[in-house]
UniProtKB/TrEMBL annotation:
Protein name: Complex I intermediate-associated protein 84
Single biological process term from Gene Ontology: mitochondrion organization
Gene Ontology CC, one term: mitochondrion
One function term, GO molecular function aspect: mRNA binding
Domain of life: Eukaryota
Organism: Lasiodiplodia hormozganensis
Amino acid sequence: MPAHLTRLVIRRILSNEPIVYRDCLYRRANACLQPRAQRIRRNGFAQTRSFFGMAREPERKVKGIDLAPGLDTLIELNRAQTGQSRPPDLEMLCKALDKFFRKKYFSSETISDVEAGHALNTLRYLNENRPKEEDVSDAPRTFLKPRCFLNALEVLNKKDSPRSDAHLALTEEVFKFLDAMRPNGCEPDSYNERMIRSLAETLEIMSHYEPVRARDMLVEKYKTNRWTSQSQKPLARPWASVLQGLYQKGNHAEAQKTLEMMQELEIPTNIMMQVKETLLGVHAALGDLENTKRIYNDLSQGPPQIVEIDSGSYKAVLQCCLQHGDSKWAQSIVRSMLETLEVYYLEPADDRLDEVKKLWDVLFFWAAASGKGVDEVDRMMNVMVRRTFADGRSAQPDVETINELVSWCMSRNQLYFAERYISLGAKWGIHPNALTYYLQVKYRLSGGDIDGARAAYRQLQAVECSKEKEDIRAANELIQAMCASQKYTFSSIMALADDLTERKGRFEPETVSALSVLHLRRNELHDVIDLLQTHAFHFSEAERRKIADSLVAMVLDRAHTSTARAWDTYIITQSIFAELPRSARTQIMREFFDRGRADMACHIFTHMRELDHPDTRATADTYVVALTGIAEFAAARVAATDNVDVDADAADAEAEYDDDESRAHECRSLLDAVHNAMKLDLDLEPSTRLRNALMLAYTAAGQPARAWSFWEDIVNSREGPSFNSIPIAFRACERMPVDGERHARALWARLRKVDVEITKPILAAYVGALAGNQNTDAAKEVLLKCERDFGLRPDAFILGTLFNAAYGVSRQGDLERWIQAKFPTQWVELKRLGARKMDDGPRLFNIDRRLTP
């Protein structure tokens, strides 16, 4: 812009005068050289600003979706494949996949089934688009290093890792890549210790689903590869994993077949004994006392230099004895443990001190489990301390000893003894660790002592936590308990949530649900969105469903949730949980119809139509629910408002329709929108049920003649009318201003001609159609003959339908006298039901005349 034009514009702005462009700007630019009349300047709005703009509060922005590093690229590949667009290049995908697995490995996080699906899709894409041998030199480095796949297997085989079909397929795909690479200098046709461990991790995951296929894969790998390892345990682990999976599935025949295969493959005896040691704990954990005894005897008779039963197996065996009440064999196990202790005490303390202490912990556990008191366990600890090795050292009770005893008390719901064992630890000078405080939090919460749990958590915050992340678990459980109790202030709950965030802990889905509901109750919508955007996309499908269910439950809680808040909750839910199933969406749509907000319900219907997934997209049943809801909304009803205290905006949003014309106009517009959407839906096949819903909706919307046309479509269709179609057709006749009686009589004659069974709903609907067309005499005649012709005696419902349909003060007065004379008992029942008086005079008895398609 020229300088003189800039000066002109700036002067106009400073003078608070408008800039008018009437002609060529070049000619207007010289206007300052010509004389002009003085204008009167009005003091309009003066431009002001705060000091450097610091006093102005910035508008709050919603957080974006928080995804694991690299996952966004994997999702982009999935979208590209679905939308047939250009996918990311191979090098970018490899870097993203490596970043994703590295993050999961070093952060000790698990992989959800959604993330596993994206990783699996990427690996298969990389395998399908692998450069050919002649193109490797020219292609970018697209193949991942073995370390990436080793990290992936470590994460997938974590103890707390979820299990799903996606995890199984991903594990197999990862091992295929790893087997083709042979990491750490592993020669072809040879498995070193690292590859054996990877195979064992793969088989452990496969055995959780398909142990027989895992066994076949193990046999194949054992036959085609040489296994080399410096110790025996890695060689035994794959076989033990497969057998454990078979026994856990209850497939004893295949387990026995696997043992026979091991003998045919001439598996060394030392490996077989290692496998049996693992199976000892498996059978004991499953409560299989017979097999536990058999394997224990085999191990006891074996050479001790090959295998030794560890403390964990001893504890599992004793727990199995407790489960079956076999105290006699348990006492023999305890004697065997004491004999083992005597042997260990003869060896140097440096070699056996740790094993001795663990065996004593099992003995303490057995003493507590068999009914010994805290004082007796204290005396046993004194015996342990006095028993020394040759060099004078002895085993000492530590915090793990106390934690084992407290865990046992918690499993038996003996909270008093749990506190006493913690006091016993203090007597021995044992300072609680993070697990101790976590156990305190847990058993105090189970006893309803939330304040005591908070005190234990404050102590937990001051100690260092292990890899088990006891502080994270305690914080999650404490937040859930405080939210559920509804006795604690918002600030105290959020202090815990902030502490959990600072520790970079994982929010459990139950915690996210509780906090989301808490924020929604306070109308803190931005906080809800930020919370869900941060955590919801790290959960599995089942965990996301839990959170969505809690939000849906809040929408459906009409007693405590206003309509405005329910709508905000729905909008948040459907935007973040796109997988929200059709059943839940339909339930929410019904809820808004019941709240008297048909416009909101139809918005939900529109959202369902816009979805592409078959599990969420609107179906014929969805159209029926929408049309039925519009019909009920259009019908005259008692004012229904939410029984909650709402603010002014919510009250305005939930105001009733005082003008019947405006209600009818809205019903017609909503009905037209749904009907037009049905016409455009190529996947929808019109059915009798759908046409019934159309009849109901158009009748209630004041277009009974249009509704009757759908009855004619039903009659001419291959499916034909149903029993629900007939009362709906009569209802359309009842509302017709002209020809209603003619259509009703013709339909009644046709029913009598084809000998259709006349039921009470059909009879009531026909009587209502006659009365609605001002022919009450014909209706009375039908009622007087109905017991003889159809075996139906007029009851309160039939007579109430006749009375309500005969709209008019004078007609209803005549009917009242007639019913009192002919059916006095039924009239008393009607009076007991009660009636409401309309604005124009007539009365309507409180009978349920709703029809279903």
